[in-house]
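step: validate -> pass
step: tokenize input -> pass
step: predict -> running
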Amino acid sequence: MELRQIHYFMAVATHQNFSRAAEHVHVSQPSLSVQISGLEQELGTRLFDRLGRKVVLTQAGELFHTHAERALRELEQAAHVVHELHGARRGRLIVGALSTVNSYLITPLVTKFKQRFPDIQLQVHALPSSEVVSGLLGNRLDLGICLLPLAHPQLTMVPLLEERLALIAPPDMKIVKKRMRMQDLAFLPLVLMPVDYCLRKMVEAECAKAGVHPKVVLEMSSPDGILEAVAEGTGATILPELYVRPRLARGNLQLIDLYDPAPRHGVGLAFLTKRYRGPAAEEFARLCETTIRELQSRPTLPRVTAVHSYRAG
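step: predict -> pass
step: emit ->
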């Protein structure tokens, strides 16, 4: 089995067409077909089903694709290690970040990172916390920003901050006080994330502490979409205060502190414990902490509790 055969296989799997795959890897279609046939003969099974001009992975092909993708990622990481050892600053860094955290942390962080490593290809994907964890474990992400607590034998966690959750309501919703007990949420229509999202689970856990069953009238996966629905009067919501604060200037939302108990959750940086982290990844991690401290110092933003100790997951 040759490395180029694996690259050709991945191209066909991606494009689902031999002609487009051949163009992508810069070989003729007959040469590509010969290489794929040779790979199938070596493995003793078909990897693709030919459906006219379109090709799809067989069950064996899907299994091979999972391991081939992982193998190529490991080879790429090995090359990065060698390049960085000799002072190179090219390569790729892939980060998964919570959607809410992504909205206020990533833009200033990326600006600083690109000044330090202009030739690094940085990819930041806004993901639910569970997908950040699975991306790290599947070796698809180099670093992840996810919800805490999280304990996994293969992951190391670096706590970054403790986010405070707040109630966000439309301007015409009659709420007398700027502070509200958690138990009072029982009387409000709420727009929340779907039940499989970690933030939703945390909200429900906090409500349970207060003996409240939230009255959910709408579920949405996009924080921006949730705020739009709230602004239009669909209901109130509960989101991280740091995420919402910059959006209050428009005047179509009101923020109410929650207490008894005050809902909070931790946010941390995660990475595979046994995986090498080069200078680019180390710098990104450092910038996470410094950027958070700068956000905390802004008078228009609420104070949050920063944590700087390291803990193995």
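step: describe -> The first strand starts at residue 48 and ends at 51.
step: cleanup -> pass
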